[in-house]
Amino acid sequence: MKSLHWCGVAVVLFALACDSEPRKITITGKITRDGNPYTPTPDTYVTIKFVPAIEGGGNEPTGTFKHTDGSYTIDVFPGKYRHRVMIVEPAKKTGKGDPKPVGPKQTLAAEPVDFTTAREYDIAVPK
Question: Domain 23-124's class?
Fold first, then answer.
């Protein structure tokens, strides 16, 4: 009977230990340009990543971006991150032959932000 009791205690402790992993939090916000929501054409490629601020901090979670209102959502583990935004606009038509390719524009935040709880965080991108 004692061994059955200890087996039950072990199962409870194991369940508690598994549940003690940090849970992801949701960060939402808008990408802005000149203070307004950035709403590019649907064929513009936009990637949002949060880069862990510590060396070897794990993967870089990728968010989802809505072209219609400039909003994004990303799930991360609590910690310090720098945001990285990459925008690739479609080739521009010049009227002379082939469209002019537009290279990717990337920004990486200089200072990390500490995300400990779910919250809103807007990201400004340059022109």
Answer: mainly beta
Give me the pLDDT at residue 30, please.
96
pLDDT tens profile 51-75: 998 876 677 888 999 999 999 999 9
CA distance between the termini of the chain: 72
d(CA 35, CA 105): 18
DSSP-assigned letters across all residues of 18-86: HHTSPPPEEEEEEEEETTEE----TTSEEEEEEEESSTT-----B-EE-TTT-EEEEEE-SEEEEEEEE
Name the amino acid, one letter, at 103: G
Domain chopping of the chain, boundaries:
23-124
